[in-house]
Amino acid sequence: MDENTPILQVDGLNTTFHRNGRALPALRDVSFSVARGEVLGLVGESGSGKSVTLRSIIGLARRYGDVTGQVRWQGRDLVEMADRALRQIQGREIAMIFQEPMTSLNPLLTVGLQLEETLRAHTDLPRAARRDRAIEMLDLVGIPSAAQRLKDYPHQFSGGMRQRVMIAIALAANPKLLLADEPTTALDVTIQAQILDLILRLAQDMDMGVLLVTHDLGVVAQTCDNVAVMYAGRIVEQGLVRDVLREPRHPYTVGLMRSVPENLPPRTPLYSVPGVPPGLDALPPGCAFAPRCTSCIAPCSQDRPALSLITEGRQVACFNPVTKSQGNAA
Amino acid sequence: MSSLNYIFKRLLMMVPTFFLVMVIIFLLVRMLPGDPAIAMAGDRASDADIQAIRERLGLTEPMLVQFWLFLSNTVQGDLGRSILMRTDVMDVIVDRLPVTVFLTVYSVILSLLIAGPLAFVAALNRGRWPDAVIRTIFQIGLSMPVFYIGLVLLTFLAAQLRLFPVGGYGDTFSEKLYHLFLPSVTVALYTSAIIMRNLRSAIIEVLDAEYVQFARAKGLPSRLILGRHVLRNALISTVTLLGLSIGNLMSGTLVTETVFAVPGMGRLMLEAIFARDYPLIQGLTLTFAVLVSFVFLMTDVFQSRLDPRMRLQ
Question: CB distance B217–A117 less than 8 Å?
Fold first, then answer.
């Protein structure tokens, strides 16, 4: 397979939840692709739809709302796929890890059992071989004396170790794509770097694509090849990480980057994008970012800008994209 | 810490509980209006007879001595003689205990059989019609008094349709199942309503838990997710409630056993109270206290089997 052939192709993904009779458009027209071994970052504020995107891809969101559009995986559409067929892909070809290591492992079951049940569902390995593989996985993610820890329960591990356990479980069946939902947000800063390194190293060794959700642009800069910036359920800017971070074109991306404190003298007030994201039940008719935008022009509040290619490999959804000089001034 | 070790420690912790229970029983019985000796002696006894009974019962001794006698006799298994039954209280209780235990266990099993599957159906169809129907029926069940449901079942199923006996307690196991079906169902309808409501909301909460989302993302079969991941976690709070309900349920046997003429400890208690049979009241109260403590112990043991986080303390 060619290096650049996408293994996952998301096309026009819409996810809508219903609360108290009202439709909440959590995702609208989300399209992107992940190539083999690629690390794609999804960034945005809370509620921008990053997490829902992952959950819509792996089939968790459809239990809670309507998912339409296409998620192409190995020539098949996961959105249309029946639950039974989807289970052959969940955990086996596409795996997911969650934000909270404290609540994402079942507190009543040993980590050995939680690891082995994945292997049991997706491999033909006999019991003894499953155990060996479980030990191998714990070892691989850096858990000391792995064989003894199989019979331990999640509460007997620290937060960072639990996140390692979750990675071991997710990767046990050798998936080709890992969906990582803010895997380091709940951890100490020192542990964060270790866990990110671990994910990247394993992704490289296993030739696995990673879709990394984060709100931390620093993480994106360190780890991702490409980045998609989300706002109010839509992708507003997308491109190579080094291009987007060097020269952001969407005003929202500019604002996000300005919010990262960097080389500031002590007691400097921190910058934040003015205003708050709109509620999903009260999206403005035009660009959802218009009310908070500093470069808002006349059409912005009436029409919605489409995500379009503005330079080689760069897509932006904006009527008045920031130019290089403006970006520097901001 | 091993399970046996834990159980032993809990049994030791029960000693002060039982001591307190005995103090309360001792004082309660002596605070009741009326003189037990007069009640025991009957209408035509002379003052001398009554005095003799008083002395025989040890009622002429100082209170502390009386309490010591009560305590040491009880520890030796001597609960005194029943006035009503004219035999040892211990013998009467040994005779009646299995009936009440059978009825209780039967009711608990029926409650779980009713509540468990319905809680799952309601939780998995949250907000849709099966959920609404199940919740409404149980709401009606909860708001009706147990004895009323019992009387209705008795009138229709036993007296009119003659599907079930109107009372009594069979000899063989299957006869007992048949005889005690109506009283057990009566108790179970109420208990299962409480269990169902609790289990339903516990399942709903667990279904949305991150570890269940993770289990789904692992591509596990639904059966495994519901049985291993959802049910076990949902049971934690329900087991506690079930333990408390069994305590309630035993005091409920006073009513059910009377309505259905079941010869158990509940009905006996009522008879003992009407007859002012103090030794029997004392013995029965103590037995109920032991049973309830035992149920609470079992609840805690089961709880710690279920939840590893509780084992370390």
Answer: no
Task: Name the residue among A87, A166, A179 with its Cβ closest to that of B221.
Answer: A87
Hey, is A31 helix, strand or coil? strand
How big is chain A by its Cα radius of gyration, in Å?
A: 21
pLDDT digits (tens, 9 = 90+) for B190-217: 888 899 999 999 999 999 999 999 999 9
Residue B223 forms contact with A (CB below 8 Å):
no
Residue A23, beta-bridge partner list: A18
Residues 6+ apart with CB under 8 A from B284: B93, B265, B268, B269, B272
Chain B contact present for A54, CB below 8 A: no
Between CA B213 and CA A170 the distance in angstroms is 12
Residue for token pair 């937060």: A159
Q: What is the spatial order of strands in the sheet that A39-43 belongs to?
A: A94-97, A177-181, A209-214, A39-43, A226-231, A234-240, A314-316, A308-311
Distance between B112 CA and the closest CA of chain A, angstroms? 22
CATH architecture assigned to B99-310:
Orthogonal Bundle (1.10)
Residues of B in contact with A100 (CB under 8 A): 210
Q: Which residues of B touch A92 (CB under 8 A)?
A: 219
pTM given for the model: 0.84
pLDDT value, residue A95: 95
Q: Give me the count of residues in chain A.
A: 330
Residues B268, B253: Cα–Cα separation, whole Å: 10
* CB-CB under 8 Å, A92 with B219: yes
Which of A106, A114, A117, A157 to substitute to test the interface with B, most B CBs within 10 Å?
A: A106
Write down the domain spans for chain B.
Answer: 3-75, 99-310
How far does the CA of residue B201 sit from the closest CA of chain A (Å)?
17
Residues B293 and A305: their CA atoms lie apart, in Å, by 70
- Interval A123-135: pLDDT, tens: 999 999 999 999 9
Structure tokens at B88: 């040892």
| Chain centre distance of CA A151 | 31
Q: CB pairs below 8 Å between A and B: how many?
A: 80
Backbone angles phi, psi at B58, to 5 degrees: 80, 20
Say yes or no for a CB contact (<8 Å) between A91 and B213. no
CA B30 – CA A109 distance, rounded (Å): 53
Mean pLDDT of chain A: 90
Of B213, B219, B224, the CB nearest to A91: B219
**What SS3 state is found at A212?**
strand
CB A240 within 8 A of CB A257: no
Residue A31 C-alpha, separation from nearest chain B C-alpha, in angstroms:
22
Which secondary-structure segment (H or E) carries A49?
A: none
